[in-house]
């Protein structure tokens, strides 16, 4: 069975069938939609792919965090089939469908935002969720501005391109919306030299305070938006003491705190949502967005906040045609059921423990490993050419990713300098597959040094 299989390359990538299909892709699809992996999927199960040429490949990217529950989960297939046989679509502005309500009720139970009573709305992508969260915050507070951070990635709509730090994702797309201001994110690995972690957190809090002086006054700021673990920014976790400070700033000034859990959500962090750590520490967000693994691969995303915040939104400013599609909602309800019954957060913690131990071994063996970090199973390794200077090793990372896929393991780069390799393996991966993946990963490192 494919879901239990181990990586096996039977023909060099890309194989003959894959070459033909990739050539068709190049002729039919814009080149700006890039793909650097020389394979074409035929089917997928668990954390494994079989390509059109019969190669078996272990996927440690999972659609960039979409497949926490794995490829083609049988229970999801049944749930989607059952709903699709009733109706594919019903727009909530026209006719109420119960799947939307059931999923909203479930999200209101499990999402760790502030408020005794919560409400949830659905859209179709992470970018849409983030953009709607901003609209909700502006409408609820009556304020025009937001603060985001260096290293942030929030999407590719016009608003979320403005929110996203790395402008490689937005070349030639300006002018961008006004009212988006940026503070420095607390990257403790790259903190100013000589500072302790505690001193660095104070430094980054002060940097945030400077934005209120130099860019947007506190009484003009609707929300502060951040990822609990930065994704494209390099898998950088927000230190809990910094989050507490942000929460206090928000509370003292009528500002809403928004956590973007598009990538960190759905058991990846060792909790169902990383914001649960904040709730436990007394600094839960006001609004939370989530997407990616919410529906096992079907388009869906969500914004959850207190009823007080949601009910303050001006009618007609949120919603849309496909938002909360019933088939996607049925899949999401099944994802929650499976992840709860099978304790996916515990799976994430166990995988993280195993991989972190191996990554730490590598750090002692290979001088190119500068930092190992993350939260739960959302982990990254930052590669450098000089440990003292922390010089980014982007070319090495590109070589490792390329070497690994040819051996049967899909890895992906991340980070402001493209020198981090992220770990987003489906959480249903087997122990044997983790061992095989770690072996290939280290072989690729050795080969590229």
Describe the structure.
- The structure is a single chain.
- This protein is an alpha/beta fold and 449 residues long.
- It has two domains: 2-59 and 343-448, Aspartate Aminotransferase, domain 1 (Alpha-Beta Complex), CATH 3.90.1150.10; 78-341, Type I PLP-dependent aspartate aminotransferase-like (Major domain) (Aspartate Aminotransferase, domain 2), CATH 3.40.640.10.
- It is built from 14 helices and 18 strands.
- The chain has helices at 16-28, 62-65, 74-84, 98-110, 126-141, 158-163, 197-214, 240-253, 275-280, 307-310, 326-341, 344-365, 394-407, 431-448, and strands at 41-45, 48-51, 56-59, 118-123, 145-149, 180-183, 221-226, 229-230, 236-237, 256-261, 287-290, 301-306, 369-375, 378-386, 391-392, 409-410, 412-414, 420-423.
- It has a seven-stranded mixed sheet, sandwiched between helices.
- Helix 7 packs parallel to helix 8 (240-253) and helix 12 runs parallel beside helix 14.
- The longest helix has 22 residues, at 344-365.
- It is globular and about 60 Å long.
- The two termini are 35 Å apart.
- The mean pLDDT is 97.
- It is an enzyme of class 2 (transferase).
- Belongs to the class-III pyridoxal-phosphate-dependent aminotransferase family.
- Pfam families: Aminotran_3.
């Amino acid at each position: 069975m494919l879901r239990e299989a181990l990586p096996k390359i039977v023909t060099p990538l890309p194989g003959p069938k894959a070459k033909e299909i990739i050539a068709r892709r190049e002729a039919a699809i814009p080149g700006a939609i890039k793909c650097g992996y020389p394979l074409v999927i035929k089917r997928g199960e668990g954390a494994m792919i079989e390509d059109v040429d019969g190669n078996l490949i272990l996927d440690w990217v999972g659609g960039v965090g979409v497949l926490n529950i794995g490829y083609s989960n049988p229970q999801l297939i049944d749930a989607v089939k059952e709903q699709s046989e009733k109706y594919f679509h019903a727009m909530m502005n026209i006719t109420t469908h119960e799947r939307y309500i059931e999923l909203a009720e479930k999200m209101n139970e499990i999402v760790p935002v502030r408020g005794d009573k919560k409400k949830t709305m659905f859209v179709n992508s992470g970018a849409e969720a983030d953009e709607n969260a901003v609209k909700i915050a502006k409408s609820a507070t009556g304020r025009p501005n937001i603060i985001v951070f260096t290293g942030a990635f929030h999407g590719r709509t016009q608003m979320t391109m403005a929110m996203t730090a790395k402008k490689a994702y937005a070349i030639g797309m300006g002018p961008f919306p006004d009212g988006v201001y940026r503070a420095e994110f607390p990257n403790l690995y790259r903190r100013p030299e000589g500072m302790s972690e505690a001193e660095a957190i104070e430094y980054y809090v002060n940097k945030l305070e400077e934005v209120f002086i130099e860019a947007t006054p506190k009484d003009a700021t609707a929300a502060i938006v951040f990822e609990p673990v930065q994704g494209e920014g390099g898998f950088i976790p927000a230190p809990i003491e910094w989050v507490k400070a942000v929460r206090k700033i928000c509370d003292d000034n009528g500002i809403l705190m928004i956590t973007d859990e598009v990538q960190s959500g759905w058991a990846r962090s060792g909790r169902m949502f990383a914001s649960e750590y904040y709730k436990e520490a007394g600094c839960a967000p006001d609004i939370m967005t989530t997407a990616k693994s919410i529906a096992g691969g079907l388009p869906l995303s969500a914004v959850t906040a207190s009823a007080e915040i949601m009910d303050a939104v001006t009618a007609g400013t949120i919603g849309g045609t496909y938002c909360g599609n019933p088939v996607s909602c049925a899949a999401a309800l099944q994802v929650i059921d499976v992840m709860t019954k099978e304790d996916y957060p515990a799976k994430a913690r166990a995988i993280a423990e195993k991989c972190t131990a191996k990554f730490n071994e590598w750090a002692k063996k290979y001088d190119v490993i500068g930092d190992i970090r993350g939260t739960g199973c959302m982990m990254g390794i930052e590669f450098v050419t000089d440990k003292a200077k922390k010089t980014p090793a982007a070319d090495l990372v590109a070589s490792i990713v390329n070497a690994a896929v040819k051996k049967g393991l899909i890895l992906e780069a991340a980070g402001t300098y493209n020198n981090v390799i992220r770990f987003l393996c489906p959480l249903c991966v087997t122990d044997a597959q983790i061992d095989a993946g770690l072996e290939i990963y280290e072989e690729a490192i050795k080969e590229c040094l």
